[in-house]
Design goal:
The protein has one domain: Arc Repressor Mutant, subunit A (Orthogonal Bundle). A hairpin with a 2-residue loop joins strand 2 (79-86) and strand 3 (89-96). It starts with 29 loop residues before the first helix and ends with a helix. It is elongated, with a radius of gyration of 25 Å. It is α+β, with helices and mostly antiparallel strands. The chain contains five helices and three strands; from the N terminus they run H-H-E-H-H-E-E-H.
Length: 123
């Protein structure tokens, strides 16, 4: 009986590992992904409410920066803004809305899935 040649020809892809298909990951919420907006949403998730001044101090940002980013989150329905006077001093207070809390949880789930996929490429 003839011997069978079991030697394999070198493969063009030899030595390279094939990447496993990525698990389905929902679309990244780019609105929350921006650093200051993520910080605003996260701070509000950890507190019932925060004033403009408290958020500005906590995030170490400028009035203009906080105004622009908080307005985008408010327009998206992620945060609610209440303006009132305390004596003669105007106050602005922010709260996370249910839609904002849901968006934050989805964002965190997305990031956790990415981290898991990067740590275990065999998924």
């Amino acid at each position: 009986m003839a011997k069978q040649n079991l030697a394999r020809k070198p493969d063009a892809g030899a030595g390279r590992r094939m990447a496993a298909p990525a698990p389905h990951v929902p679309e990244l919420d780019r609105l929350i992904h921006e650093r200051i907006r993520l910080a605003i949403v996260s701070a509000l998730a950890a507190n019932d409410s925060l004033t403009f001044t408290e958020l500005k101090k906590l995030l170490d940002t400028t009035d203009g920066n906080l105004s622009i980013h908080s307005r985008k989150l408010e327009d998206a329905g992620y945060i609610a803004c209440e303006k009132y006077f305390e004596g003669r001093v105007p106050k602005t207070e922010f709260r996370l809305t249910p839609a904002g809390r849901k968006a934050l949880h989805q964002y965190l789930d997305h990031m956790e899935a990415l981290i898991k996929a990067m740590r275990d490429p065999h998924l």
